[in-house]
Amino acid sequence: MTGRPVISATGLFTPVESITNEELVASFNEYVKRHNEAHAEAIAAGEMEPLQESSVEFIEKASGIKARHVMAKEPVLDPDIMAPRWPERSNEELSILAEIGVKAARDALARAGRDPKDVDAVLCAASNMERAYPAMAIEIQQALGIDGFGFDMNVACSSATFGIQTAADYIRSGNARSVLVVSPEITSGHLNWRDRDSHFIFGDVATAVLVEDAAIAPAVHWDILGTRLKTVFSNNIRNNFGFLNRANPGSEGSADKLFVQEGRKVFKEVVPMVAEMIVSEAGRLGLDPHALRRLWLHQANAGMNRLIAHRVLGHEANADESPTVLDTYGNTSSAGSIIAFHLHNEDLAPGDTGLICSFGAGYSAGTVFVRKAA
Ligand code: COA
What we know:
This protein is α+β, with helices and mostly antiparallel strands. The chain has a domain at 222-372: Thiolase/Chalcone synthase (Peroxisomal Thiolase, Chain A, domain 1), CATH 3.40.47. It has helices spanning 21-38, 40-44, 56-63, 73-77, 96-112, 136-144, 159-173, 263-284, 302-313, 326-329, 336-343, and strands spanning 5-13, 18-20, 67-69, 121-125, 149-153, 178-185, 205-213, 222-231, 237-238, 260-261, 294-297, 353-360, 364-372.
């Protein structure tokens, strides 16, 4: 038996706490001041370069980000810590990643009117997994009371679209009828809050997408017209943290075990790759890219999205055609395009066609063309 995959509903969990650029820069510049004072002699002797201050104006102009939500604001802003902290949880407690994933999943299930007992699988598709195993997906499955299977998958910022295609393939093959794709992104744990070039980029959030067979979906849903995935190896976005490299002398806690990128190169290389991929996939599906009603793009940089949307739509996109959530959420890795879709899809009319698109480390990119069902 084969099915026809649709998006029945999406869910969102937004952490209560938020950090403005002003708060972030004040904390960063205090760290810079203390660091330069502590090394004043070495700097004066020319043995060390002083650290440079960050600026609110640069951050907003370069990225479009004005604020970001986080799971633990105080330690992130404390110049002596500059990393998230929370009490360690016992194995009997729900882990923090599963906790926010469950919140987003419950939101999606409620919107679809779906009983967890009728869900067949949970994919935890995210960039920053909390541990190696057991899979967070199985923990989320257990917490929701789902009888079926779950596993974790990580394709960095493209995890959610890769998860949607995987779920859609289960529906198409008849291996499942209802699949939850959950993307809990506690990006604050892998961001180097002491790195001037990237300290402003990320925010925390969790999203969920319920992918189902049209035969059981609620009346209001989005047909999945087609999905396409692409990966091309690049060292321009990396995070070397892992279980095999922790023992190397001097490596633990060093900056390359956190997020690092060549932002300029990423910008230049990813924009044409993604724009081309979208246009060619639209062609394969017999869709006119200029006629797409809305683009829900990955939320990494406002300038990147402007360029991609222009190349796809053939004109400068307005906020209605290519909504941004970057300003209040920052880059939320795989969750970004899903937040944009979640917050900006209800006003569209039956028959409207749009695109959910992600791109990021790997490089990786995924497209999900959708049409609102009547
Ligand atoms: N405050 C003030 N100035 C800063 C700064 C900060 N926090 N960080 C960098 N600068 C300075 C640099 O020193 C540089 O100065 P110079 O011209 O005197 O050398 C200047 O600003 C430009 O820096 P650059 O890093 O080239 O900025 P950019 O315009 O490329 O913007 C990004 C940086 C990261 C916002 C942008 O490249 C980007 O978003 N790229 C895509 C990233 C992406 O999609 N990543 C995927 C992650 S999943």
